[in-house]
Design a protein that fits this description.
Length: 240
């Protein structure tokens, strides 16, 4: 499993595409948070990273499928999946190795953004940023990235076309993040079902953790979604 994880990491950074994807992610975050006047944190008048934690999931919607789209689709297309099946590993180990390798890349992209928190803390005249909320929000981002990675890996396992894998992964991530919240606002669900429908979406649990309170129910939700999509991926590999 760890050999596959290492292979995924090295494969992503074996070309300029990997570096460009992460650089674009950091560049977009920097532009929105410190340059564009409508979203600049410097114009808020107080030290807060709420704008970043609201914006980052939308950028991850495109970054993570970019990272995961080649996971299995490229293996199918080049024929190396047949070679992979001859390795002394189980389908579960292949899936988890791919998942952990891609997840490490996502974490590597998020790690430099800690500079934003340090910068806001240094620029703050009084009090500084809310440490509890910031830590909770980063935990939420890591869990969010893990769910998007599992979805992207699953989407890639169904096709040998990387573009299709990207589009499918991005769409499913978008629906899981905001789709249930949008459905819950339909008038037909105003009788009380709206709250439970909204709970099915990622944004509900991400927002909860971002308040600085890491609830066990939120952790179970994220873990359940990750395991579900990786299980679907594993079953798909077994069929192949």
């Amino acid at each position: 499993m760890w050999m596959i994880c290492k292979k995924e990491w090295q494969q992503f950074f074996s070309s300029l595409t990997g570096y460009i994807a992460i650089l674009l992610f950091l560049l977009l975050n920097g532009l929105f948070l410190f340059v564009f006047p409508d979203t600049s944190l410097l114009d808020f008048g107080y030290a807060s990273l709420n704008g970043y934690f609201s914006l980052c999931p939308w950028i991850l919607l495109f970054l993570v499928p970019t990272i995961t789209m080649r996971s299995f689709a490229e293996e199918y297309k080049t024929g190396t999946f047949e070679l992979l099946k001859t390795w002394p590993v189980t389908p579960a180990q292949i899936v988890w190795g791919k998942f952990l390798g891609a997840l490490l890349v996502v974490f590597a992209a998020l790690l430099p953004t800690i500079v934003y928190a340090i910068s806001m803390q240094q620029l703050s005249a009084v009090g500084g940023i809310d440490a509890g909320s910031t830590i909770g929000s980063y935990i939420g981002l890591l869990l969010l990235g893990a769910v998007f990675t599992a979805v992207g890996i699953c989407s890639s396992s169904f096709t040998n076309n990387t573009v299709v894998a990207f589009i499918a992964g991005a769409f499913i991530c978008f629906f899981l993040y905001t789709g249930f919240e949008a459905i819950s606002k339909l008038p037909v669900f105003k009788a009380g079902a709206d709250y439970y429908i909204e709970m099915l979406g990622i944004n509900f649990h991400y927002t909860s953790i971002s308040r600085g309170v890491v609830d066990t129910r939120d952790l179970i939700y994220f873990a359940g979604v990750i395991v579900l999509f990786l299980f679907i991926t594993q079953r798909n590999l077994v069929k192949r």
